[in-house]
Design brief:
Helix content: 25-40%
Structural class: alpha/beta
Number of helices: 14
Strand content: 15-25%
Radius of gyration: 20 Å
């Protein structure tokens, strides 16, 4: 098999792993890949997804979420704790672990919540949860109490676990639901200030300096946050962060009166987007995570003001990033694989395995949510043309995704 990306695979995961990948590909017997238009990539890793089960299986399930991940080339994901029950105790976590064991198609690593019930009033049973969770987060909510976050950081440090923070100061939200920018003002929408994010980033970084905690920031969206993180790294703090594809490709100039453009944090200004791009280029931003957040069609059909926050992203992330960042010369393919494979696995101590996906890099097509495996279909990228079709994904030696061969659209 000839492959344009085998030197890249050597650099990312070592020649021994690459050989194993190619041997496994041959054993799957999909078809003959004898052209350099095909690429084999190590399994992507997403440290920020919402699979909604237990509690909200009408939005997504462990099975549908993991199938969507496989469709996007992902073989490892970390699932957020905004569930019912919230994984704030060993007993509550077990319900999720049982579902993962029964229905998961890929490697799924759950988070434990920072606070009991994600209510922000008291810490979860962090010590009991620690052996079976990837880290601690209250994603969807910022921890408002300085003292409680300080206590969580101290506990996480003792347990050898990451604090993974959704940074949002509720006192600065003012009932907003999109970015407090030009579009909001022109169309009479209530805006979410950039300060609501970066102020809590600033607070948490001071607490990291005080406690020595290992700390990771979710879905960075503002230029101020990027600069604060850049300075924190220069000071030697144990800090990493992520952003999402939609913040790198879109900004509030793309907004339409449609719930598929509503997410939290919101699409920010062009200047914020440019700062995020600079952040991935210079290493301030360590990884790209999708914040895959499925909802029902009804929940996303109520416009910008009343729709639920969140969009899906696992099945479109790589094609979008390849098309609009790599092909446009913003970053190299090697850099993209660091952001999707190497860096998240290293930071979250997720093993580099022989999992892989096979892509037809010559195939161009229009994003159609009807083809998503996720139960959620809401994306602002519907109708966008992208390059790169995932033909197959293999996890633990098992074929977990196989694309039917079809012509380009």
């Amino acid at each position: 098999m000839q492959n344009q990306n085998t030197p890249m695979l050597d650099a990312i995961c070592g020649n021994g792993v690459r050989v194993s990948i190619l041997e496994r590909l041959a054993s799957v017997d999909l078809c003959t890949f004898d052209s350099p238009k095909y690429a084999v990539f190590p399994g992507f890793c997403d440290v920020h997804v919402h699979f909604r089960e237990p509690g909200f299986s009408y939005k997504e399930t462990i099975f549908s979420g993991s199938l969507a991940a496989a469709h996007g080339g992902y073989t490892a994901v970390c699932t957020m704790p905004n569930l019912n029950p919230v994984p704030d105790s060993k007993a509550h976590l077990k319900e999720q672990l049982d579902l993962i064991k029964e229905d998961g198609l890929i490697h799924i690593y759950p988070y434990g919540s920072i606070t009991a019930g994600q209510m922000g009033g008291a810490l979860s049973e962090m010590k009991a949860l620690a052996p079976q969770v990837i880290g601690f987060t209250d994603d969807g909510k910022g921890v408002q109490s300085d003292d409680l976050m300080r206590s969580a950081m101290k506990q996480a440090k003792q347990l050898g676990k990451l604090i993974v923070a959704h940074c949002e100061d509720n006192s600065l939200l003012n009932g907003g639901y999109i970015h407090d920018g030009d579009y909001a003002k022109a169309n009479h929408h209530r805006g979410i200030s950039s300060e609501s994010e970066w102020k809590q980033v600033q607070r948490d970084l001071a607490l990291v300096k005080e406690t020595g905690c290992a700390y990771h920031i979710c879905h960075v969206s503002t230029k101020e946050s990027v600069e604060l993180i850049r300075q924190a790294k220069k000071e030697g703090l144990n800090v990493t962060c992520e952003t999402a594809p939609h913040y790198l490709i879109l900004d509030d100039s793309y907004l339409q009166e449609d719930g598929c453009f509503k997410m939290n944090p919101p699409l920010r200004s062009t200047q914020d987007r440019q700062a995020l791009i600079a952040g991935i280029q210079d290493g301030t931003i360590d990884m790209i995570a999708t914040d895959h957040a499925p909802h029902t069609q009804e929940e996303k059909s109520k416009g910008l003001d009343d729709s639920c926050f969140g969009i899906v992203g696992l099945e479109t992330a790589f094609p979008l990033l390849y098309t609009y960042l790599v092909q446009e010369g913003v970053i190299t393919m090697e850099k993209l694989l660091q952001l999707l494979v190497t860096n998240p696995r290293k930071r979250f101590r997720i093993p580099m395995t022989t999992d892989f996906s096979v892509w037809d890099m010559s195939q161009s097509y229009i994003i159609d949510p009807a083809e998503f495996q996720s139960q959620g279909k809401s994306t602002p990228f519907s109708g966008w043309r992208v390059w790169g079709k995932c033909l197959a994904t293999v996890c633990d030696g098992k074929l977990v995704w196989l694309e039917k061969v079809r012509n380009s659209k």
